[in-house]
Amino acid sequence: MKGGLQTEKVRKRYSRIAGLYDLIEAPMERAFAGRRQELLAGVAGRVLEVGVGTGKNLTYYPAETEVTAIDFSPKMLERAGRKIEREGLSNVELREMDAQQLDFCDNSFDTIVSTCVFCSVPLPVQGLRELRRVLKPEGRMLMIEHVRSKKLLAGPLMDLINPLPLYLYGANINRHTLENLRTAGFTRIEEENLWGDIVKRIVARP
Fold it and tell me: What is the pTM of this model?
């Protein structure tokens, strides 16, 4: 299956760079850490975080939330686990799982969180459909994602250089995530530009 082969390639790339991931992401993290905190400040109930990575969001969840955090890279989960132990977080459960094939019942979560994840999901619409399935009808999906610019020069430039980050660690910088959300069945979508028209805060409801 094509999607399965793509997923395995991306999984291996993320496991390969897990030890350096926070260092690679440091410049972006300095710019957007505050945005993560703002995004998660009002989260309540049962929460699914998709693509937890090294656990950058974990300390920002309110203590009363029940967080299930998944990733398809065991090496990333190892680093997130260390953060949970170091910070003494008792409200977070880590699970190895692929966003494209979730092992949860329909309508399981009040909130789904995704920060800079759907650049690297091999079949993004399939993954978003799975998230819609497990999100309660009155629930929200909260996202910070970078997408392809619609500007005349920036968009084609992103297309041109996309093979480099894709090869290095499996991330696409030219995804059409808003369009993918609509294709996946999300009908109420709010967006806020955080950096040009490339980095966006997105709130999506079924």
Answer: 0.89
